[in-house]
Amino acid sequence: MILYPAIDIRGGQAVRLLQGDYERETTYDSDPVDAARRWAEEGAQFLHVVDLDGAKAGEPRNLEAVRRIAAAVPCPIQVGGGLRGPEAVSAVLAAGAERVVIGTAALRDPQFLDAVVGEHGESVVVSIDTRGGKVSLAGWTETSELDASSAVADLTGRGVRRFLCTAIEVDGTMEGPAIRELNGIAAATSAQVIASGGVGDLPHLEELARETAPNIEGAIVGRALYERKFTVAEAIAALT
Amino acid sequence: MSARIAILDYGMGNLRSAEKALEHVGVSARMSRDPVEVQAADGVILPGVGAMPRAMERIREYGLDELIAERREAGVPILGICLGLQLLFESTSEFGGSGGLGLLEGPVETLHAEGLKVPHIGWSPVSWERESRLTEGLPSGTPFYFVHSFAPRPAAEDVLGTAEYGSRFACAAERENVFGVQFHPEKSSSAGLRLLANFAGICAKAPAAA
C-alpha cells in the first residue's frame, strides 16, 4: 500500500482539523512547503494536499502553495479542496498536481463529474466522506441519506477509477481506521480506494495492510506524522 | 567540480520538476534551447510530457535534432526521461506514427497491458538487466514512478532495466553516452534523486564540453 502523508493548508499554513471541524484546528507548520519537504525527505512516494480555504470557498485559494509544493518535492502530489468546475481542475493540474481530488461536487454536479472524468480519467480521485455508512455532504456539516456503498458503485459505473474514503467519526482522532466501513465500500467497486482517517500508530497501518480488501491501495496519514508517532519510512514499512 | 546540465526546452510540458530535482542533488541545471548554452554543458537531459509526433515537430523546428546528434558525437552524456527516452529511438506508432531521433535502435510501441488500464500510472519495481554507473547504489527491484502509454523496444544489448505492467517492458536503456528512463526520476523520491545524482556524476567525468 502507498502512504499518502497529508498536508492541509489553511490561511497559508499546514494545519490539522479534528473530525473536519474548522473550530478544532492545530497548526503544525507555518509554511506547508516545509511539511512537504520533510515528508519527501523521509521517503514519501506521494503527497495528499488539501486546500481547506478552497474547500470552504468553493474554489482553489492556495494555488501558489500547491505550485511551490509540486516544485519542491521529488514525488507526485494529489490536490483537493474547492474543485467544483473544470477551470479549477485545470488550474490545479497546471500548478503541478498529478491528480485532482473532487469532493461532493462529484455527487451534486453529474455534468461536471462526466466532463472531468472524460478529460482527465486516471488523474481524478473522488472523495467520499462517510458517517455511519452514509455519505456526508457540504464540508462534513450535513449527512445525507445516501448509502456510501451505493454512491461508490454508481460513480464507478460513471467512470471513476479511484476513491478516497474518509470516515468522519475517526478522522483526526488517531484511534484507529474504520476497517469494516472501508471494506464495505471497497467491495462495492472495482476502482482503487485510498483509506483515510484514524491512523495513530504503526499497528493501525499494519492492520490496514493486513485486513483490508486488495483494491484498497493506500492510506492517508495526517496528525500521527505531525506528532511524530512514527516516521514516513516506518509507516511505509508497516504498509508493505 | 560539479557538472552543469542543460535541460532541453522544446516548449512542451512542465520541465520545472526536473530542474528542481537536479538542484536538490546539488547540480546546476538550466533549461535551454540555445546551442551555445547547451554546448557549454557537461550533460544534456531530454525531458518530456506529451505526444511524440508533436514533440519531434518542435525539436526539428528549433534545430535541436542536429544539436543532440552533435552532442552525442562529442561524447557528452545524454539522458532521456519518459517521452524524452522515447524520442531517442527510431520511430513511434503513436498518433499515426512519426520518426524519432534515432540515437538508439528500435521502435516505440504501445504498452501490451492485457487487461490493465493504459496509461500505466504509478509506482512499479524496476529490475536492472546489467550493471551501470547510472544505477549505482540502487538495488534491482527499486520502485520508480511511471506515467506512460508507450514504451520502447530497444536492441537487447541496450536494455538496462525492465518493469512489469501486463507484460514485461524495457524501461531503461543505455548505449555508450546515451541513457534513457521511461519512469520519472524527478518524481521517484530518494531513488530518483540518486539516479539523477549518478547521471550528474557521469557528466562530471565525461570529456570536457566543447
Descriptive report:
The complex is a heterodimer of chains A (240) and B (210). With 240 residues, chain A is an alpha/beta fold. Chain A has a single domain, classed as Alpha-Beta Barrel (TIM Barrel), CATH 3.20.20. Chain A has helices at residues 32-41, 52-57, 63-72, 86-94, 105-108, 110-120, 148-157, 179-187, 202-211, 223-226, 232-239, and strands at 2-10, 13-18, 21-29, 47-51, 77-80, 99-102, 124-131, 134-137, 142-147, 162-167, 192-196, 216-221. In chain A, strands 1-4-5-6-7-10-11-12 form an eight-stranded parallel barrel, surrounded by six helices. In chain A, α8 (179-187) links the parallel β10 (162-167) and β11. Chain B is α/β, with parallel strands linked by helices and 210 residues long. Chain B has a single domain (4-205), classed as Rossmann fold (3-Layer(aba) Sandwich), CATH 3.40.50.880. Chain B contains six helices and 13 strands. Chain B has a nine-stranded mixed sheet, with helices on both faces. In chain B, strands 6-5-7-10 form a four-stranded mixed sheet. In chain B, β11 and β12 form a beta hairpin. The radius of gyration of chain B is 16 Å and the shape is globular. The two termini of chain B are 17 Å apart. The A-B interface holds A 2, 40-41, 43-45, 70-72, 74-76, 96, 98, 122, 161 and B 14, 16-17, 20-21, 24, 117, 119, 121, 123, 143, 145, 147, 185-190, 192-193.
Radius of gyration of chain A: 16 Å
Task: Report the helical percentage of chain B.
Answer: 25-40%
For the largest beta-sheet of chain B, the strand count, sense and barrel status come to: 9 strands, mixed
How many domains make up the 3D coordinates of chain A? 1
Structural class of chain B: alpha/beta
CATH superfamily of chain A: Aldolase class I
Shape of chain A: globular
Oligomer: heterodimer
Strand order of the largest sheet of chain B: 2-1-3-4-13-12-11-8-9
| Largest beta sheet: strand ordering of chain A | 1-4-5-6-7-10-11-12
Largest sheet of chain A: 8 strands, parallel, barrel
- Extract low-pLDDT stretches of chain A: none
What's the overall geometry of chain B? globular
Roughly what fraction of the amino acids of chain B lie in strands?
A: 25-35%
Q: Measure the end-to-end span of chain A.
A: 6 Å
The CATH topology of chain B turns out to be Rossmann fold
CATH level-two architecture of chain A: Alpha-Beta Barrel
| Tally of helical runs of chain A | 11
Low-confidence stretches of chain B: none
